[in-house]
Amino acid sequence: MSQLGTALVFWPAAILMLVWGLYVFRTASMARAGLLLLGALGLEGLLFLALASEFLGVLMVLMMSGEMIIMVFFMVMFMPDPGGLMGMDMVHDKRRSAALAAGLGVALAVVAVITDWPGAVVSPDAPDVRAIGYEVMGRSMFSFLFAAITILFAMVGGILLAKEGGRLGLPEPTDGTSRRDERT
Amino acid sequence: MISLPVVLVVAALMFAVGLYGVLGQTNAIMVIMGVELMLGAAMLNVVGFLAFAHPDATSGSFLVLITMTLMAVEAAVGFALVVAAFRHSRTAEIDDLTELEG
Amino acid sequence: MSAATPFAILLVALAGAGAIALLEQAVAGLRPAPAAIGASIARRLREPLTLPSSYDAWLYHGAPLLLALAAVAALATVPWAPGFRGIDLASGTILFAAALAYVTPAVFMAGWGAGRPLAVVGGFRFVALMLGFAMPLAMVITAVAAPAESLRPTDIVAVQSSVPMALVQPYSLALWLPAVMAVALLPPFDTATAPDELGGGAFARYTGPEAAIVALARRILVLAVSGMTAALFLGGWHGPLLPDAVWMAVKTLAVAAGLLWVGRRLPRFETDRLLILAWKVAIPGAIAAIVLAALTTLLFYR
After folding, report:
1. Fewer Cβ neighbours under 10 Å: the N or C end of chain C?
2. What is d(CA A54, CA A56) in angstroms, rounded to the nearest whole number?
3. Cβ atoms of residues B47 and A56 within 8 Å
4. Which chain C residues in 81-140 lie under 8 Å from chain A, judged by CB atoms?
5. ipTM value of the model?
6. 3-class state of residue C64 by DSSP
7. Which residue of A has its CA nearest to C1?
8. Mean pLDDT throughout C89-107?
9. CA torsion C129→C130→C135→C140, rounded to 10°?
10. Rounded to whole angstroms, how far apart are CA atoms C271 and C126?
11. What is the pTM of this model?
12. Which of B2, B29, B71 lies closest to A67 in CB terms?
């Protein structure tokens, strides 16, 4: 992609990504929050494409769709107010968290600008799909297998944690009270 | 035009947005969303370095692949923890989850 | 990709959607009548836009646009002829799956945005269905890409110059067809959007131009999945005598007619049975398909 084409894709996608990312935490509707996060991370995939990391960009766009839709489901399940119609307060430490986040963002941005990065003028030309394939199935194969086993552990552990009765297989109270209420 | 510092600044701002979510939200799932944004910012950093500083480093692409796996694993385990906590104390608000006792 | 490519893609999308609409009439036992289709479009465009009483405006109005975007993006990755293709990326088949993955949020947005209980249930049903069927879709693409040693659609068509993939990997085709029918909102997998389920499901409340966009996008989806099926499994533009593009068009329309015909003949299953099909049959089957595809590649293509 030409320099101009990269800039034409990069700037709108980057700005929209940041705005949507911020609105994830400003909207009261959980469906909107999840879908805005999907939009922000999908646009990040577009940024990868603009920066010539073609395979990573396409993969990001593909993977985020499924992951964020699951996120929306969990939000709707576990929020007392999924539609955002009751005006429930969902934030704490509002001022301190905003100040800390803004301070860190500015500090990181300043570091990024003032540092003399090596070779920062090379035109974007990331490795192609075939090279990534040889990397995964060659030098990095052990790490790749390790990631696979991590996913397997996460699957088994997640199911054990989340299944009814918890990891000990205790019967679930059926009258709507929690175990803590029962004990006290 | 786009250069490496521009990409890094965008990633820094995205990281800050994610941090704002992690610190400021009361619901556990919203905190997971913030962590996803922070991981996304880290990936954008790597892709920026890949594009402008080391165009032929395939191990950089591999690091992004691993980070994507990490995002999925983090979300899965996080959701499972939220389900377990919700079963135990009927809430997913982290301000109410103050005890480790089971 | 030249400057004229987007217009060519749109032309293919509109012409193809018209052809799919005619096929639908023929499969339903009616005489194909372009005039009837034109009249129904004109009626939709003249119709006033009525909105649901309580709804989420951004999600409701965004859903038809996202559906149309996903459908056109999926169509753009289909290789039509050696010199004519839209987006030609080295990971084009993954981009096809990625574009189709955004049908799910679009249907969910439509259902949630309409703010009616049955529409929300329709959106949830479709998400549940696609969480199951998106994985076999992507895994079958891996299996089909193995003989070509490339994820580029044109390379996969090129490797089928003598034998179409449907004969080499019939098991992959068997896993692929239910997945693409589910993602293209075709019966019998359309429990989320069928007119006689859930009072019309996720898209029931759309009126006027938005309903026309939804109807158009659904036809483009059918065209895109049929075109990709023809390219990945039936040898794409390879064929005797006729020109390349004609072969591709014939194969695409034949696949589309087959999908529509099968959909009209099969009963609609409940969503939980479809989920059993997806998680207990299609996903393990897709893993087996990848192994088998790797073996056939090593035996016959090296």
Report:
1. C
2. 6
3. yes
4. 89-91, 94-95, 97-98, 101-102, 104-105, 108-109, 112, 124, 127, 131, 134, 138
5. 0.89
6. helix
7. A1
8. 90
9. 100
10. 9
11. 0.90
12. B71
